[in-house]
Structures are given as structure tokens and as C-alpha cells.
Specification:
The protein is α/β, with parallel strands linked by helices. It has helices spanning 13-18, 20-32, 47-51, 55-69, 80-93, 101-109, 114-121, 141-145, 151-157, 181-184, 186-202, 213-226, 235-239; strands at 5-9, 35-38, 74-77, 111-113, 130-138, 161-167, 207-210, 231-234. 49% of the residues lie in helices and 16% in strands.
């Protein structure tokens, strides 16, 4: 494992506002992997504006993020959703801008989802952590389809002492969040979340893990409204040995 790896951590808006513990867990894992971690001043990645068709604001936010993260060897994001925005959509969004197009491509090329970065770039194979629970792992749509992340979270989680980890029955199906999708189509969104929760409940899972906080907040909120006793955590928190309450609980 090489040293002198300068990483810029994009904390994400959801972690900053709702789950700052995730940012601290990400830093601990990156430092464990030998990285020098910085958290530069940052804005939203621009994905909500982009998905809403507001290209003007999406472009302005993309420029802010590109400028903030250019100095680093790698950009790491504890979210396949924000990572996908940077890696896949920034080059398209700024492709006709003579000043920003190449800069966006360079930042996109060094942007990684956290768990895949730890495994594939830093060579981290295991952690020393304990979590005695039966858990199901949820792959977010963006992680799978835009960032090609699948085996890496499972590889690391298999090293957690006491964790009995399985996949959801329909592992490639959306949880129903989808950002504005959950607002535009609440009935469909709730049904998709219910399917995930019913699957976890029927298989005796105590814990649902994922690499995307948006999915976890969506599922945790739906489970709470149903009165279910299933806990939800970002995988990075478990891997870092975090002892904070599960998402949605105090």
C-alpha cells in the first residue's frame, strides 16, 4: 500500500446535514488505508439541480466542485449517487465550455466511490471491526450502474466480526428514493421501499446496510412510519467501528 496519497473528501450534502458521523467514518477508513485526507470548502455537487433540468445552476455548482478538488490526487465520495454525478455527468455538462471541459474530465477521471476506492485503489482487504447482527446489503442504482460498485462493499463487510451479511432478494431493484422520483411518484416510491422492508423483515434481518445515505434515509423513514424495528447504517460506519445510533434514531 503506497503512501503520500492526497485525497479530497466530498462529504455530500446529506451527510453534512443529516449524518455527519458518516464523514468522520470515511476519514477514519481513508487514513487506515494510508491516505492524507482533506475536506476542502465545498458546495452541493449539483445533482438535484441537474435532475430537475436546471442546467444553469448545475453547471455553476459543477464548476465550484471541480475547482475545489483539482489539487488532489483522488476525489473520494461516500455516495455512488454524488460520485456518479461527478464522474459521469460533469464531462457531459461542461463539454462545450472551453475553460472547464478538460478540467471537468480530469476531476471525473480521479473520482471514486469510497468503498471501491479502498479496495481497488488502496488495496484494503479487511478491517478490524465488530457488528453482531444479521444484515442485508442494498446496492444503490447509481453505485451499480454509474460507478460499477458491487463486490467491494461485500468484501470489506465480510471481514467484520459477527456480521451475517446477505443480499436482498431483488438486489438490483431500486429502493424507491431516486431523489426527485420519491417526490414526483410517492405511491410507487413507497411501494418499492415496502418491498425492501418486507424482504428484510421476512428474513429476520436486524440491519440494512448500503453505501448511499439517500437510500438509507428513505428506507429508514418508511420503516419508522410502519413501526418496524429494523436498523439502518451506512456501510462505512460499520467498517469504521462507529458506535453512533442507527440512521433515524437518537
Amino acid at each position: 500500500m503506497t503512501t503520500n496519497c492526497r485525497v479530497g473528501l466530498l462529504v455530500t450534502c446529506l451527510a453534512d446535514l443529516f449524518r455527519p458521523e458518516l464523514g468522520f467514518a470515511a476519514v477514519r477508513l481513508l487514513e487506515l488505508a494510508g491516505c492524507d485526507v482533506s475536506v476542502p470548502a465545498q458546495t452541493c455537487c449539483g445533482q438535484p439541480a441537474y435532475n430537475a433540468g436546471d442546467r444553469k445552476d448545475a453547471i455553476a455548482l459543477a464548476r465550484n466542485i471541480v475547482a475545489a478538488f483539482e489539487p488532489f490526487d483522488y476525489v473520494v465520495v461516500p455516495s455512488g449517487s454524488c460520485g456518479g454525478m461527478m464522474r459521469v455527468h460533469y464531462p457531459e455538462l461542461l463539454r462545450d465550455d472551453p475553460i472547464w471541459a478538460d478540467r471537468a474530465r480530469q476531476v471525473a477521471a480521479k473520482t471514486h466511490e469510497l468503498l471501491s476506492f479502498l479496495v481497488n485503489v488502496r488495496g484494503l482487504k479487511s478491517v478490524q471491526a465488530e457488528c453482531r447482527a444479521k444484515a442485508l446489503y442494498h446496492d444503490s442504482c447509481s453505485s451499480m450502474r454509474e460507478m460499477a460498485v458491487r463486490g467491494e462493499p461485500r468484501q470489506l463487510l465480510q471481514s467484520v466480526d459477527g456480521l451475517n451479511l446477505e443480499d436482498f432478494s431483488d438486489a438490483d431493484v431500486c429502493c424507491g428514493f431516486g431523489g426527485f422520483f420519491s417526490v414526483k411518484y410517492p405511491d410507487i416510491s413507497a411501494r418499492l421501499a415496502d418491498d425492501k422492508i418486507d424482504d428484510a423483515k421476512s428474513r429476520g434481518a436486524e440491519l440494512v446496510l448500503s453505501g448511499d445515505l439517500g437510500c438509507l434515509l428513505h428506507l429508514a423513514g418508511r420503516a419508522a412510519r410502519r413501526g418496524e424495528k429494523i436498523h439502518f447504517r451506512h456501510a462505512a460506519e460499520v467498517l469504521a467501528g462507529a458506535t453512533t445510533p442507527p440512521i433515524g434514531e437518537t
